[in-house]
Please model this.
Amino acid sequence: MHDTQHVAVLDFGSQYTQLIVRRVRELGYFAKLYAIEDFPDIGKPGAIILSGGPRSTSEPDAPDLDFAALDAFGVPVLGVCYGMQLLNIKFGGTVEASDRREYGPAALYPTECEGLYEGISSDSQVWMSHSDTVKIIPDCGKVIARNQHGTPVSLQWGERFYGIQFHPEVTHSHEGLRILHNFLLSCGELEPFRIEDFKREMIEGIRNTVGDKQVVCGVSGGVDSTVLAVLLREAGVNVRAIFVDHGLMRKNEGEEVRANFHRMGVPIETVDASELFLGALEGVDDPEAKRKIIGEHFIDVFWNAVGNAEMLAQGTLYPDVIESASNAKSKASKIKTHHNRVDRILELQAEGKVLEPLAELFKDEVRELGASLGIPHDILWRHPFPGPGLAVRCPGVITEERLHIIRECDAIFISRLKDHGWYDKVWQAYAGLVPVKTVGVKGDERSYEWAITLRAVVSEDAMTADWVELPPIILRETSHRILNEVKGINRVLYDISTKPPASIEWE
Ligand code: XMP
Model:
């Protein structure tokens, strides 16, 4: 899909690479990420961006690319950080390796006020994250911006090749988006990114792939699987939407999901497999083991429930695809196994039995797609809920008692957010259990009970997140109600960790 005149982003492994793709799409152009190993198999791009990366160009096995092939595309190229250093070497310059890291803000002083830096102010804040720096600039290169110390931070080689040492894709680079836009404006006709076009192509792609096969689709009530189910129905696919209750749902979740699908006119079947899941999870406390068990049982339950279904559709999104460690080409280090990428699914994928039509979209783009499919606002703006459910909010072993506590606390917290008009302002919120007993006083008695943690974050696509400064009244009411109404809890904590270094979920 969309491989002509798009913006190809080559991944050298920076934690910000996905953001480059996102920003380009925000600017209205279609962008796609490629593993560097796939180069030069990147379709027919109208522009190429080389991402940053954690390595040093001086390392013997540092990621490299075939420069002749890059040049042969004949399109503008922007190298970011590692990408810039690599380009400087390719043009005959040098890079100085360093053990010292420059991380944080710097001031940008463009030496040219056109091209990349048209309309960019002097002293604009940019975000640095690098160790190596360019040293000798080749004859064909010129400095187009410096930092506050006069050090070159942006170069141009010839007419088509640009380099920037800082990260224009992060919001800490105040005019980064404009710099990216200036680059894209220099690229001639690029393919626009419009959700309506995307929807049409997706529907056509689904029809071609599926034909008259029956597709099983797991729905959880979350945005991704809901949009997926409605999209499949819109494509006229013979689809069975199945809601698996794995016993790790929030309070009243099953009823709410059924009511929502009823509202949208999409029939769903419910499979109550909670006993199976909770049985399999009994005594398991390792986070990765829990995820694996849940992921594998999920598939079993599906295939058992549907018998002869010929395909499985899942609402995997672009960040899941990239972040997933089982994407063998990804250079991102393994953090968690995504439940959409367990071994069984990879096997099914190899057999061509998995359909992932949303795999090129970011979350906000999925919401846009959902809106264009007529899905009601409150369903589209439900907070994300992870596939493994409350399991990832229950560190240690999972028991009915622990789940009950989490459900009650979570329901209280969410109701406080809704009543005070904060639910829609927060990207995701939940209560999780801290299974550590501490001493307290209840009535005149000593208590020795667990703590509950409240988490509310704002985020863009969950890659980074910041905790929310909720009005104290919400925290106070939530704490008061939990301590009075939920047996087994004598302490309420508010999680003030950013991601990174914490993740949004506890496991
Ligand atoms: P973390 O905890 O990695 O979460 O910061 C990022 C976002 O992803 C959700 N999440 C998942 N969603 N399957 C999902 O569908 C999963 O296995 C999974 N793990 C985390 C999490 O709720 C947050 O929105």
User: Anything to note?
Assistant: The chain has three domains: 7-185, 195-278+292-320+337-380, 398-494. Residues 325-335 have pLDDT under 50 and may be disordered. The domain at 195-278+292-320+337-380 is CATH 3.40.50.620 (Rossmann fold). Residues 217 and 241 are 5 Å apart (CA to CA).
